[in-house]
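Page 42, continued from yesterday. The earlier attempt failed because a stray header line got pasted into the input along with the sequence. Redoing it now with the clean sequence only.
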Amino acid sequence: HAQVIVKTAIAALRPALLGNKIANSGPGSPPTSALGHLKMLKMSLRTLTSAPTPLSGKAKKLLRLLPAYETAIQNLARQMKTIKIDQQAFWNQGRRVMTVSARIDKMVNNSLLNIHQVISRNREKGNTAIWLISFLTLLILACGFFLTRRLGGQLAASIREAVKAREEQQKVNIRLQEEITERQQAQEALAKTRDELELRVKERTSDLAAANEMLQTEVEERSAIQDTLHEEKELLTVTLQSIGDAVVTTDLKGRIVIMNPVAEELTGWSWTDAVGRPLEEVVKIINEESGKPYPNPVDKVLALGKVVTLANHTALIAKDGRRRIIADSGAPIIENGSTRGVVLVFRDITNKQQLENELIKSQKLESVGVLAGGIAHDFNNILTAILGTINMAQRQEAVKGDETLNSLLATSEQAVFRATSLTQQLLTFAKGGSPVKKMASLPETIKESTDFILRGSAIKANYLIPANLWPLEIDTGQISQVIHNLIVNAQNAMPEGGTINIKCRNFEQDGTVPGLADGPFIKTVVTDNGPGIEPEIIDRVFDPYFTSKTEGNGLGLAVCHSIIKKHNGCITVKSTPGQGTTFIFYLPATPGKPIVQQEKTGDALDAGNKSGRIIIMDDEVIILELAAGMLSMAGFKVKTTLNGEQAIALYSHGLTEGRAADLLIMDLTIPGGMGGREAAQEILRLNPEARIIVSSGYSNDPVMANYHDYGFRAAIAKPYRQQDLCKVVQKVLRS
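This time it went through. Structure tokens are written below.
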């Protein structure tokens, strides 16, 4: 727009710059027109001073340059006016000279005509007198003396008339000479005036040429300024459009002046529609928590007169009703010491807020994980001792025939299993724990867990799972636990019965889901038609130990969150009170990878090789005694050690004598001594073919999840039953 105004002003000046039609300068003359366009340019630049700091600075700089340009045009207008006056005076003087010359020519012509007439008349009179005198003389001579006196008087009269005519002719000649002299003087005066006027015109023309040259130089400079202005305007426009934040400027009354594309996108208003409207109509800001309108930020900025950061927890309501969490700030637009308006800058932080919330949840889970990791090992050691004792007691002959004792032992065993389940849920939060992944079918895992829980209930499950669903690499036990907890949560929400809809589909992440890496995923949606979750507590459902029920430990959904996170996925919840709740979780898929069916093994106590030499290493004596008793009962020869150094020495001694142990079972963590991880490396250096099983009460330790990477043949988590221990031992011995 500024470029068009400057070009128009130059176009209006061009005739004057070329020296043409100067006399026509008036109200619509080039200088006047140029001053009008210059005024329009100044108004436009003042509008641009309401822009952000880079744009307003450039506009202010150009405003400071315009007065010099305006002064030059006004000087040109005054010079052109002076030249016009001089030129008009020259033409008036010329007209007066021509009038005088015409009058002189007319007078001379009239005088010459009169002289000619007088001469002709006198000539005729003179000829008549001569003939009369001759006739009279002859008559006198013939007639005599009597007539002499009379004829003499007539002759005297004729002579007097001739003399009088001659005198008149002389007067006419004198008058003619005077008129000729006057005409010559007038012509000389006219020539002098013309010379003076020509000299003055030359001087004015020279001044005009100099002024024209000066103006041409200024025009070139202004043209360069115009080009610079155009470049600056383009740069400022591109900059404003390229800013990743929304930018809105208003006047002092809070009416919209400028909006950049990001502001248009976030508010849903176009710039053309928003211009002139009140800010609160276009930029609707509310308190995120209360939903109440936020006070007009323009009033706050104008009241304080400085940069203001608005309160936290603000949300923007777009034209279409969409809500976005924003971070915003405002600042006054100041020009020459006075405030001209307000500029607001805000950005969408919805995704950032979600990520921060996820981080807070993760930090809460990690804090629980620190506690869980600290007590899990000791707690599981105790459970191992209890469970092992119960298993060994159940196999005693005296107990087998006692139903009451068997029932008590079975009840104790179930209590241990419940304690083990609780420990496992706590371990899910442990920092550094990794799932033991394998290729699996998610639909199979979902259906098995769901059908088992809903068997005999009044709740129906609907599955919408496509046949071409991608396979995944997951810890089936942990994912089963996720499904179990979600279904139990839905079941508790619908005590009178209802429907649970489970949908799965392949999903390519392209940045649309916050906190999820790009790539292939399987999206699973679990929806119930229960009463829903209240808005004030929905953000806490994944917090450990938070529950809205009178019973339960509040770990179910927290466990789901932790497991999905450790699978590099994410889980979210949506709910509308009275319309049910929807949980959505994403798990990384592995398209093209085959699912390997796991080989099923029988009871190791009843089949397979029951002989072999085994070394057990554990810092808990009770665990050593129970594990040794379990394996001895199964027919194995067992030796025990309390730490890694003893295990290495015992294995090395047997290797030297040619009767090395066939298998080692090593506890992963030995307080104050060498643990299974370090000891296994030393034993493998002695014999790379050594068979070693790692055992730990901390089942989520990376070594337990990826035992092959550390040289172990298998892993068994505490607590374990006798049949579980024997099954793992038989499997490793057969490998």
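Notes: The domain at 442-588 is CATH 3.30.565.10 (Heat Shock Protein 90).
Reminder to self: strip header lines before submitting.
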